[in-house]
Amino acid sequence: MGKNAKNDNDLDKFKGPLTTKQKKRLFPELLRANWWNITQTCRELNIDRSTYHRWIRTDKKFRQKIEDLQEEEKDLVEAIARKKILKDQDKTMIIFFLKTKAKDRGYVERQEMRYETEQTQSPLSFDLIRSLLVKRGTLDKIIEAGQELEKIKRESK
User: Fold this and answer.
1) Count of domains for the chain
2) Average pLDDT, integer, range 3-18
3) I want to staple 90 with a disulfide (CB 3.0 to 4.6 A). Which of 50, 79, 84, 148 is the partner?
């Protein structure tokens, strides 16, 4: 048990089977040591994944520790991605970054139109418009559909 953990003594210091409280306390530490592999961490603590998910649902402190670790994981991966962009000038990573972080500058694979109302903000994608146009079938109907969309937009203001 604990062969992937940074410090096997963390598990070995407990005599006999671990209590639920001990397992919950060790879980975040082992999860980090196992590079956020939940299955491996559950295996090392001899619990089912369903037990882990139940702890997440029912124990606020445990859930918060796991959420903090997930943020730590994201920070780590983002740092690696930034290094690949800045130091290695990795083209794939640059494209990924632009498509996820620079959408507002036009780096998107598909375009979305947004309209705002006082209560909500909802995307109106070109896929939806295209499906409306295909259903209509003729140029007159296409123009009519465009007018309907404009009307919806005006009414939502």
Assistant:
1) 2
2) 60
3) 84
